[in-house]
Structures are given as C-alpha cells and as structure tokens.
Amino acid sequence: MTRLYNAPADFADEMIAGFVAANGRHVRAVPGGVVRSTTSPAGQVAVVIGGGSGHYPAFGGLVGQGLAHGAAMGNLFASPSTQQVRSVATAAEHGGGVLFSYGNYAGDVLNFDAAQEQLRAAGIPSETVTVTDDISSAPAAEKHKRRGIAGDLTVFKSAAAAAEAGYGLAEVVRVARLANERTRSFGVAFTGCTLPGSDAPLFTVPEGRMAVGLGIHGEPGIDETDVPTADGLAELLVSSLLAEVPDGVDGARGARIVPILNGLGALKYEELFVVYRRVAELLEQAGVEIVDPHVGEYCTSFDMAGGSLTLFWLDDELERLWNAPVDTPAYRHGAVTAAERRHADEVTDAASTAIPVGSPASQQAAATALGAIEATVEVIDAHVDELGRLDAIAGDGDHGIGMQRGAHAALAAAREAAQAGAGAATLLDRAAHAWSDRAGGTSGALWGVALRSVGSALGDHAAPTRQAVVAGVASAADGIMAYGKAQPGDKTMVDALLPFSAALRRGVDGGARLADAWAAAADVASEAAAATADLLPRMGRARPHAEKSLGTPDPGAHSFALIVQAVGSVLAGDAGTRKEDQHA
Question: Of 101, 188, 197, 212, which is least packed with CB atoms within 10 Å of its CB?
Fold first, then answer.
C-alpha cells in the first residue's frame, strides 16, 4: 500500500513538485507537466509524451536530452487533460512541430487528439503515434486496439533519437510507427496496487495465484494461474512473445532483440535478475541475438507486485537510434553533450480572460446552474467510494476520485464566474474548462463537453427556455458521442445519456414543466444506468475484461444518473420558489 501522503487528492501535484525540485538539471515545471530545462536546436521536432501519474519513471522521468522534450502528467492513473497536453506541447515546441506519443488508452486518446487539433489550428504541425505493445489486450488481427505498457520506452526513445538526429516530423513519425510495430510486451501480477488514501487494492489475486495479462493502471488480468517458479514465469513470458513475431521479421532465429524485463513496483531487482537469467537462456535457445538487455523499473504501478517482458525487434536504423545517448532523471545511456539551460517562460491559459457580464435573466439562470453544480458535488462526494469500487471491477478504479476532482474544480470556477456576474453560458463554460482540466481522463473530457454544450445553448443574454435546455442536452449527447466515439450498447455514459435526452424532449414537447420533465427523464436515466449491468463493454479500459463487468453497471452511466437526479431536485426547488412560465 501507499503509506506516505498528505491529502490523497493532492498526491499527484505534490509528487510532481517534488520530482521537479529534485531534477532541475533535467526538467522544469510548466502547467500540466514538465519540459526539458535545457535548450534544443531551433527547428527540432519536439517529442511530447504523457499519461496518468503513478507509473514513474514514466512519464516525467523520461524527459531530457536524447529522450522526450516534454511530458504531460495527469492525475493518478488518469490521462492528462486537453489543457495540460496543449500547455506542455506549447512549451516544448521550437519550430519543428510536435510528435505526441503515449499508451493507447481512451482518455489519453481523447485529450491528446483534442490538443493536437488545437495546435494544428494554431499553425503548429502535430502528429500522433500511440503505443500498442500489450499482446494480452487484443488479438493480433486487432493490434490497433491494444494498450501501451512498458513498451512505451522503445517507441519514445526511437522517436526522440530521430528528432535529435535532425529528422523532420514525417520521418520521426515513421520511426515511431516502426518502433511500435516491432515492440511486444506481456505482463503478470501477484497483487494489485493501492492508491494513496485507499484502504484496499484495486484488484486482488488469491494467495498462490497469478494474474496474467494485467494492465498498468490496476486493471485485473485476463486470466489467472498458479504462481510458477521464476523459471516457469520466464518460460511463460518468452513463449507468449515469441509466438507473435512482428511483420517484416523473418522469424526469431538470427533476429537482434532488446529484452526489457520491467518490475511494476514491488518486485525486487534480485527477483527480476533470477527471472532474467532464464529469459536470456530461452532467447538464446531460440536463436535470438540479445542486444543491450534492460532489467529494472521502467513503467510501474505504485506497489503492484508484478512484472512484464518487452521484446524490441531491431533493424539497423532502430538499433542505431536505440544506442543514441540519453540523459534524463530516470534513464541514462552513453554521454550527451550538455546543452545550455533554458530560460523559463510563461505559458498562458485561455481561461484566464476576463469574465463577461451576463444579462439579469441569464444571471438568474446561472444561479440555477451554480446550484446544480453544488448538488453535483454533494452527490459525487457521497458516492465517491462506490464509484471507485464499480470502476475497479473491470477498470482502474479511479472514476470516483476523478469525478470528485472534476466536480469540485467546476464548482470553484462556477462560483468565481457567478461572483463576477457571468451569464449561464460563461459560467458553464468556465466550469467545463475546470472540470476537464482537473479531472483529466475520459470522464473529465466528456463532462467538459457536456457542460460546454448545455451552456452554449443557454447563452448569456436571455432567459433560457425549456426548449433551449432540451437542445443543450441533445447537443451534449451528440458532442459526447462524436468526441468519445461511444455508441449505444457500448456500456458507457451514453447508455444513460441518450435515454435521458429523449425522455426530456418528450416531456417538454408534451407540455410538461422543465422540472417535471427533468425528474421523469432522470428516472429513465437511472433505469438505463442500472440496465448497463447486462452489457459487455466494447470501449475503454474495461474492454479487455468484458466478462468481469457483467452484473455491474457502468460507473460512468451510474454517476450520470446520480447527477441528473440531484440536478432534478435543484430544478424542483427552483420551480417551487417562483411562478412557472414559458421559460421553465
């Protein structure tokens, strides 16, 4: 378990602050993460990596000469927000464009893609290569769906070395894709990991048993076996990986391979060396030529007792790039020519602009919206542990704390906007920005879309009509589906949101007051959320563990239902304090 922390919600921020304080020779802090503290040549491609915190040395520990130019660092096991990614990329970029690279997880894809679109709109060329090395997370025919685990290192290092060598953006992308195609990983765990402040691990493994094919965010394995000997584990890892030779490689015999035996946090180096002894023997028996073996911690998961093996299948170009010198806080290879220190500069945030004053009617609507956000915070606080437990069954267990962080940030931003006289649109836009930035992850991004969509429909200059609320909710549903790519039946928030939106429209079109139509729609959402227990997830981190989630409602759908029920109580109270008219 994690023993040393202050407030659990502050753990990631305090960890990053301490990391920067200890490694100023390599990194400096910017909003959303870290960038190199040294200069880079003008026109060099910037390699920006990132993901949730809790995996050190990934991701901040890999920033420095010869490796990443910046790392967006999200909350624990939660992707960085769009704002964080954009901030880090803007600070890291120096005229050659940006390559984003990160593990293939839904929240990371959502937020990095959104940041990429914003950079392109600002005239900064940007491309993405996601890492998909985990063979347990999808079959070879669907390897584009695989998640990234410890194989991140091979892709990041190859791409960064290409950038250092002066490759242009298109060529850096080509190298990153080639490195990803030639990287395969497989992992196991003997215990789950425990987040700061939690009294239980995200998943458990029975004594004497081993989870096979686990994820690095505490996702449980896809299978379970008896704990083997060290040699038995080596045989499982090697045989699993040699069974899938990458395209373009003519069999294992004669291939040049970098093996990376990675500890996930609680395995001791001595144990890893015992396992690697047999790994090396098996690879040599298969005719493999071992190049630069790595044994240690490269991508961890707090106190998880487990490990993974990565095989990086080299060609001449990849071997040259792999051997290029690197100097970062956590990873060093060869000797770099020390670069000059970089002068700190400011990265501005678009949300710092002045708050426009709304009309009196819109300010009244903003007050109702503020009450709705206050009710949201109350209901999430009351159910945060339950939401975490639901998410841990087939996911990574962070949904409760992520929703809590986002809702509290939204409330602070909404209160500030209300005090400045904002209308409904501005208040909800500020709340959306704060929610998505603070929460990160998939839920942060999607709730940001939802609040911004509703606010846009309400406006800042008139009293919103019932039809405007209906249109705003429908726009939120469309935006979430377009942004998150989920469809009905995928076992996501969409499975509660769409029935809610349809029921709200029916009620308002039938002449019901907004409060009554909302209450009825909230009941529909609750029923729909409960019904997701019968669905198998087809998206996100729960997808590789679909069967484990049967009988359990989707946490995103459940939290949505809780929130609309709470908002319904606010609307009912608001309607009861004033005369109902055409606007309500």
Answer: 197
